[in-house]
Write a structure and sequence with these properties.
alpha+beta; 2 domains; five-stranded antiparallel beta sheet; three-stranded mixed beta sheet; 32% strand; rod-shaped
């Protein structure tokens, strides 16, 4: 806190007059305060006491609030601060009374916000990671798990997201065809001929399809969990 005295007046208990002037506009207020104090202290002591009335301005902090925002890419239960909170500043004026140098009262007179606080923003994870299931050797899933790791380093949660995504899309079948849309293969490329950029055998080779699908996921969503988050919200990716 920063304390700054901005006005001072000295008033005699015995006479109710100013010992030190310069605050003519507050003369009546200070004299009334002197009379009130004189009524509650020992009359003999009051005759020789001096009251000092000081207006002080004090800088005080305004606490910041914490608000939450959904994070669709964060796992359920996770939290991360995306914006640090900053306390605000307010200037509070007090009328402080001293009797012979001892503070006897402090009354708030005014409160002004100098700088408002900035909220802390916390992103709360919304993404449910699918459970792990056993991957049978020699299957399309086994190939997908291997290539995801070898080509992009996607393991752990990223593999679980990819696995569930393509289970929903095609059941990991490289001959899966959507008759209404024309999507085809493990990643359900639309149209299927897009996968020809990774091999002329795109219609029959699961590895060609998986490589194209991994590239698509990386380019459009950065990670499988990014693609899974979009699928979970929209029903497509």
């Amino acid at each position: 806190m920063q304390h700054v005295a901005v006005s001072v007046a000295l008033v005699s208990f015995a006479t109710g007059t100013f010992v030190s002037e310069g605050m003519d506009g507050m003369r009546g207020v200070y004299q009334d305060r002197a009379a009130q104090l004189a009524a509650v202290v020992n009359p003999v002591a009051a005759a020789n006491a001096t009251v000092q009335i000081v207006t002080e301005s004090v800088e005080e902090q305004i606490p910041f609030a914490s608000v939450e925002t959904p994070d669709r890419l964060g796992k359920v239960g996770s939290e991360r601060v995306v914006q640090e909170g900053v306390p605000g500043v307010q200037l509070v004026s007090y009328t402080v009374t001293y009797v012979d140098g001892v503070e006897t009262s402090r009354d708030e007179a005014m409160r002004v916000t100098v700088q408002p606080p900035v909220d802390q923003v916390v992103a709360v994870g919304q993404l449910t990671i699918p459970p792990a299931t056993e991957v049978e050797k020699g299957t399309n899933r086994d190939t997908g798990q291997r290539l995801a790791n070898e080509l992009y380093g996607w393991t752990g949660d990223e593999w679980l997201c990819l696995d569930e995504l393509w289970k929903r899309e095609s059941g990991w079948s490289h001959t899966s065809a959507n008759k209404s849309s024309g999507a085809y293969g493990i990643p359900q490329a639309l149209p299927g001929t897009k996968m020809a950029s990774f091999g002329a055998d795109w219609a029959t080779n699961p590895e060609t399809q998986i490589k194209w699908g991994l590239s698509y996921v990386s380019g459009r969503y950065s990670t499988p969990c990014g693609a899974w988050a979009h699928f979970s919200a929209k029903g497509w990716y």
